[in-house]
Amino acid sequence: MGPSAAQRVVIENCAIATVDAGDTEYAFGYLVLAGNRIEAVGAGEAPRTLENVVRRIDGRGHLATPGLVNTHHHFYQWITRGLATDHNLFDWLVALYPVWARIDERMTYTAAQGSLAMMARGGVTTAMDHHYVYPRGSGDLSGSIIRAAAEMGVRFTLARGSMDRGEKDGGLPPDFAVETLQDALRATEETVERHHDASFDAMTQVAVAPCSPFSVSTELLREAAELARRLGVRLHTHGSETVQEEKFCHELFGMGPTDYFESTGWLGEDVWMAHCVHMNDSDIRAFARTKTGVAHCPSSNARLGAGIARVPDLLKAGVPVGLGVDGTASNESGELHTELRNALLINRLGAHREAALNARQALRLGTYGGARVLGRADQIGSLEPGKLADVVLWKMDTLAHASITDPVTALVLGAPAPVTASFVNGRQIVDNGRLLTADEDAIAVGTREEARRLARIAAQD
C-alpha cells in the first residue's frame, strides 16, 4: 500500500521532542502516521487536506516523543522479584540461580507477559530480553517469550543467551541449568533461523548472547561471535559490571574484561554489552574505536551496589549508549521511564557532578541511543518522516507536571507521566494508561501464581 492509500492517524496540538540529529522540538505541532510509518512532523496546525484520515488525536497538554527503547532485560526474573535485596552481584546470583534453574515454559511465558506489560504501559515500544537460563526439559523457552511479545504488540529483540560453565567447572549456576557448548550453539542457530526477521519493519529479531565471561567458556564466546557474524545478527553479553568480575578475568585470563572480549572477537559495531560500570580510559577508547555499544542500567547498578558507569565519558568518546531496565530481580519496578530519571541523577553523583547529563541527553539515551545500540537507528528512535510509527503521547497537564514549563524536563525529572497513547508500527497498544493488547489484571494474577509455583518447586530441592 503506497503512502497516498494508507490510512492516516493525525496527532495534533501537542509539544514534540523529535530526538533527531538536531534535537528539533516543537512547542505546538503535529505528527502524521501513515500505515506503519511516520509521514510528517511539523510545527503549527496539522494540514486539513489530508486524505484517508481515520482518526485525529487532540494532543493539547501532551508531549510526543519516540517510543522508549529497552536495551537490556531478563524477563523471567519478574517471578522472582523482591528476593536477595541486600546482596552484591555474585552473592545475589548464588542465592537466585538455584531458583531460576527450576523455571519452565509456562513460567517464562507468564513472566514475559508481566515484564512486557509493565514496560509497554510505561512508554516502551521496543523491548529486548536476554534469556540465558535453559534448564534441561523445560520446554520451548525462547518460543514462549517471543509469543508473549508478539501478543503484546511490542517490537522485540530476543538475545538468545547461553551458559556452559556450571558449578563443576567453577561457574555459579547449577550444572543442570547450563548447556554444552555444542547444544548452546545449535539451539542459538535454530532460534535465529526460526525467528529472526531482518526486514526494515521487523517486529522480532534475534541476537546471539552468551551470558557473561564468568558463566561461559572462552570457546563458547569465540564460537558464538563467529556464529552471529555468519548469520548476520548482533551480539550481546554482560561486561565490566563489578569489581569482582574484573578480578575474575585477571585471575583466569590474565587480562581485564575489555581486553578479554577483544581477544575473543567480542568488540565491534554489531556488539552491545550490559552495564560496563568498571571501565578505564583504555577500555572506553576500545569501545569507541570499535563502536561497541553499551546498555546502561542505573537502577540495577545501584540495587546491586555495582557502581556508577562513566556514561558522560562514554558519550564524549562516541560510544553508542542506550538504557536498560535489567532483570526485575534487581530492578523491581521493571519500568524504563525510571531509568531516564535515574541515569541523570546517578551520573550526577559521579565525577562530572551537575554537568554529567541533562534531561535531553537522558531522553536521547532512552530513545535514539537505544535504537543505535540495537542496530535499528535508521528505523526507530526518533520522530522523522520515513521512520517506523513508534510514538508515545505523554500527558503533561496533570498536577504532577503542569507547573513545569519545559515538557522534556517534566518528563525526565518529574513523576512518571501517564501515557495517553502509545503506537508501535502504527498500531495503538496503550490508551489512557491501559494496555489494549492484554488484560493487565489477568497477567497480575498469573504472575503471582507462577511466582508461588516456582517458590514451591525450588523449596523442594
From TrEMBL:
Any idea which UniProt keywords this protein has?
Hydrolase
This entry's Enzyme Commission designation comes to 3.5.4.32
- Taxonomically, which superkingdom? Bacteria
Where is the Amidohydrolase-related domain positioned along the sequence? 64-426
Give the enzyme's main class according to its UniProt record, as a single word. Answer: hydrolase
Q: Which GO terms describe its molecular function?
A: 8-oxoguanine deaminase activity
Q: Which Pfam families match?
A: Amidohydro_1
Listed name of the protein: 8-oxoguanine deaminase
Origin species, per record, is Streptomyces nogalater
